[in-house]
Specification:
The protein is an alpha+beta fold and 100 residues long. It has one domain: P-loop containing nucleotide triphosphate hydrolases (Rossmann fold). Helix content is 19%, strand content 29%. It is built from 2 helices and 4 strands, in the order ββαββα. A hairpin with a 6-residue loop joins β1 and β2. It is globular. The termini are far apart.
């Protein structure tokens, strides 16, 4: 039996706002990252890179779709559980970070 992928996104959608003002930042994003893979998320401005990274970093949740981390469906976790997952397994350097 093989191990679950490290990260798996299936049909990820993220919509900001509602009604006529709704903006779909991600639509049907699918990819898998296996343990040991090196991945670059690249694209032009406005293509959804930051939104994708915020979902991968457990800082935001998708509007629809499935996000699995080590086989666990992240959107089924509550805020505190996502915080524990982030603290134990993830590192994140923000684009506009400041060091004191």
């Amino acid at each position: 039996m093989s191990e679950a992928p490290l990260i798996e996104l299936v049909g990820i959608t993220k919509t900001f706002g509602e009604g006529a003002a709704a903006f779909q930042a991600l639509k049907g994003v699918d990819f898998t990252i296996e343990r040991g893979d090196f991945v670059a998320i690249m694209g032009p401005s406005g293509s959804g890179k930051s939104t994708t990274m915020n979902i991968l970093g457990c800082l935001d949740v998708p509007t629809a779709g499935i996000f699995r981390f080590r086989g666990v469906e992240v959107q089924s976790l509550d805020r505190d559980q996502r915080s524990l997952l982030r603290r134990k397994y993830l590192g994140f350097v923000f684009q506009g970070f400041n060091l004191l």
